[in-house]
Amino acid sequence: MTILGIDIGGSGVKGAPVDTVRGELLEERFRVPTPQPATVESVVEAVAEVAEKFGDYDRVGITFPGVVVDGVTRSAANVDKSWLNAPAARLFTERLGKPATVLNDADAAGAAEVAFGAGRDQSGLIMMVTLGTGIGTALFLDGVLIPNTELGHLEIDGRDAELLASDRIREAKELSWDHWAPRVEKYLRHVEMLLAPRLFIIGGGVSKKSEKFFPLIDIRTPMVAATLLNNAGIIGAAVSAEQHPASLQVDAAAQAAKSEGTE
Q1: More exposed terminus of the chain, fewer Cβ within 10 Å: N or C?
Q2: What pTM did the predictor assign?
Q3: For residue 32, with 0-12 CB atoms within 10 Å meaning exposed, 13-18 middle and 19 or more buried, which class applies?
């Protein structure tokens, strides 16, 4: 069985077929820019473009930068508002002609790290934090995902944490590592106060430069860089597609739409 993982990010949509036993890409990943604006129709087509690059496949797992419940996207902080309450699993399944499972992007990356990377064999409460266009979070208790935490939107100093410490803000404001690291530290200290996790796994593209800012951050909780780097979302999406039948998401989304229509 061939399973694709496709990761929808704020700047790019990337994917590849995945070995879900070893947690590795089977081919070099293919990437296209995320459409601007990132409407439902344009992003679905971008995902289709990535999928078509790899020919025949059996099913696909797709990440989304927001809350996903039963295949329906319930938030849209870093994409077009047309994604609010969109039946994503059904839309992707219909467009690709293959079963499509959809989940939160940070949850997917965290699942991959817990299964194959920096969080493997770790017990207790572990938090994955992806620093990119926004701040994504995934929470695991003894290896079990607590989905859709969205703790990147905690309020810090009267504003959304993403506007304080995301990698996008670092680049937009041209912040040096010395000036950006204290922002990340403030965010992580806030999370420490609320949850007291056993381990932080820091992901996102900036994690491959961890030596630049990790030494500048002083927190109690151990902190490690994600080992799967930018492939974590792709791998986690594919694993989710294997473990969670897409038909269940599509059926649940259809039932939810039917219920909302009768209210």
Answers
A1: C
A2: 0.87
A3: middle
Residue type, 252: A
Residues 114-141: tens digit of each pLDDT: 999 999 999 999 999 999 989 999 999 9
Q: In which element (H, E) is residue 145 found?
A: strand 144-146
Question: What one-character DSSP code corresponds to residue 62?
Answer: E
Annotate 71-128 with DSSP letters as a single string. Answer: TEE---SSS-GGGTTB-HHHHHHHHHSS-EEEEEHHHHHHHHHHHHSTTTT--SEEEE
Pull the structure tokens for residue 12. 């790019």
More confident residue, 250 or 45: 45
Nearest CA among 98, 79, 55 for reference residue 250: 98
Domains annotated for the chain, with CATH where assigned, are 3-104+234-256 (3.30.420.40), 118-227 (3.30.420.40)
Token output for 57 = 């496949």
Neighbours of 256 (CB within 10 A): 16
**Amino acid making up residue 146:** I
CA distances in angstroms from 5 to 196, 215, 217, 247, listed in the order given: 32, 33, 33, 17
Nearest to 108 by CA among 250, 249, 247, 241: 241
CA–CA distance, 219 with 192 (Å, rounded to integer): 8
Tell me the one-letter amino acid at 58.
Answer: D
Give the C-alpha separation, 193 to 196, whole Å. 6
Binned at pLDDT 50, 70 and 90, residue 262 comes out as very low
pLDDT tens profile 24-68: 999 999 999 999 999 999 999 999 999 999 989 999 999 999 999
